[in-house]
Amino acid sequence: MFTKEELDEIKKSINIVEFIGRYVNLQKAGSSYRGLCPFHSDNDPSFYVHPQRGFFHCFGCGEKGDVISFYQKIESLSFSEAVKRLADHAGIVVEIDSTESEYDKYTSIMSRLADVYSRELKEGNSAVMEYLVDRRKISLATIDEFKLGYSPDERTFQQSLPSKCRVDEKTLVQFGILIGRGSSLRDRFSGRLLIPIDNESGRVVGFGGRIMVSEQGPKYTNSPESKYFQKNRLLFNLSRSKGAIKQLNYAVIAEGYFDVISLFEAGITNAVGLLGTALTERHLRILGNYTRNLLFFLDSDDAGQAATLRSIDIAEKIDFSTAVVVSRNHKDPADLFVSEGAKAIQEVLAAAIPGPAFRVEFFARKLDLSVPQGRKHLIEYLKPYVINFRNSGNLATVQSTIAALSQKTGYSERELELALKGGLGGQSRSEIGRGLVLKLKDHVRIYLQHPSLRSKVVKQLELIAESRDLKEILKGMKRGLELEELLDLVDEIVGRELIDLASSCIDFETAQRILEKTGEYANRKLVEEEMAEIDRKMPNVKDEGARRALLVRRIELSRLLDRKMKGGDQFGKAEKE
Fold first, then answer.
1. Which of 43, 96, 306, 416 has an alpha carbon 20 to 30 Å from 138's alpha carbon atom?
2. Does domain 102-229 have CATH number 3.40.50.1000?
3. Which residues of 412-449 are buried (b: 16+ CB within 10 A; e: fewer)?
């Protein structure tokens, strides 16, 4: 059916790691990637993907093959269906024989149905067009772009659907368009405004329908779940927006169809919608092919804000950078667009706050921060988040959280750092040491991502690196080695962590702030070491002048430490004194 050249071109055009990564959480393991096998109950990762040779292999169940066989297995597709869909995904035209695949048949009928609904809207339903143009402020060009349509609540229209779509009733029932039995068959979407839903390749796989007469059922209804229409795998408008998302390096995530359409009308071409379901890791893996930066513009009511918090929690857990639009005066993007227009949309997007700052704001709304107890509760709410971020080495998010918390409570960042660690009083030196090693993961990230800051990173790590693994890495850093060369110095476990750190984005401004803050600690350590050295020398110094000079120097250093602990002078002076 397909030539070897066609199959080879498809396989070469698709990054097998990225594609399988949509279904499996893969981690780098040497020259391969490893994860839990999706084809059997796997507790210890035994599923390997080899990008250079383009195949996967599970040492647990023995399942193996290339990207085509993986797609067949994971989606329960025939070989021809898998090839055709992967060709669509890769933008490759392949010769198909006269036997139409199930996928082609399904999407072809859905596309014809979208055309039928679209013509019905334009030719016979001025009231629905007025709703779109006058109330929703949607232009005719955007109506055409999204192929909006209408299914009139008329028996003659419903009876004519099979002939208009050139398909039999049985198929429309099978695809969930016609419901009921015998002579009582009717269009699932009768009386509704129709929004075609594309998959990532731009094929119509389902519909969303908005009721136009309130007493006739729920406000929105979707196509039934099927092999090709699964809401936890689909993002509305991704087929149109993926180019802009990749170019702009961020995606705007909204809730509803009209939120996304209104954003498009306002000139925001990198928006996707969640199809009335919660954000999932599957959604994030798909978006991860285009960007690691997400801007959430969900509803401003309590449910929408709670959904925003859940979404940034999931996204930050797998290392996405997040921001949130805060617009309390309007329920959603569509409402804001209708009320105030495109300029207002662009203004609120520009004023978005970081995800960690939103989390602080979210919990703060429930508390009275004018009293100490309220501020204490806010810190306790945020403490588990900070601990998790610190343990994962994500110091940038820790810093953002502490900065937002400082603004909200009035406490200094130093006070909050102590409070969020549980205070230094109950910690042993070994516990403090482990915390510092975790913080130093950000130094490795800075080294790998910002070559201009490498000399500062190396100088600081020379002073404060304590773990054996980090000291090994430091040897390579002093020689200016790149990631690939550093991997030769460490074992597999540390090597995988280095790769993760290299791919976990940290912006230049945050990197500088981290180095500045850790530099204060490094300078403090220099002062403490000099004091300890003076203490070691003192018993053996007989000359009174020399003893007096050492005592004076120790007093100076002690005062310097005291000033810093009370929030006074910076340690920048320490090295000069």
1. 306
2. no
3. eebebbebbbeeeeeeeeeeeeeebbbbbbbbbbbbbb
6-44 pLDDT tens trace: 899 999 999 999 899 888 888 888 778 998 888 887 778
Q: Which of the residue ranges 147-151, 341-345, 347-351, 473-477 would you say has the lowest mean pLDDT?
A: 473-477
Task: Tell how strand 47-50 and strand 55-58 pair up.
Answer: antiparallel
How deeply is 294 buried, as exposed, middle or buried, from its count of CB atoms within 10 A (0-12, 13-18, 19+)? Answer: buried
Residue 448, token pair as written in the block: 């790998």
pTM beyond 0.70, yes or no: no
Neighbours of 525 (CB within 10 A): 16
Check if the beta carbon of residue 323 is closer than 8 Å to that of residue 352.
yes
Nearest-angstrom CA–CA distance, 109 and 172: 9
C-alpha to C-alpha distance for 470 and 466, rounded to whole angstroms = 7
Which pLDDT band, with edges at 50, 70 and 90, does 355 fall under?
A: very high
Architecture of domain 233-351: 3-Layer(aba) Sandwich (3.40)
Gap between the Cα atoms of 448 and 454, Å rounded: 8
Max Cα–Cα distance, the chain, nearest Å: 113
**357: Cβ–Cβ under 8 A, 6 or more apart, which residues?**
400, 401, 403, 404
- Retrieve residue 398's tokens: 């820790």
The strands making up 64-65's β-sheet, listed across from edge to edge, are 27-29, 32-35, 47-50, 55-58, 64-65
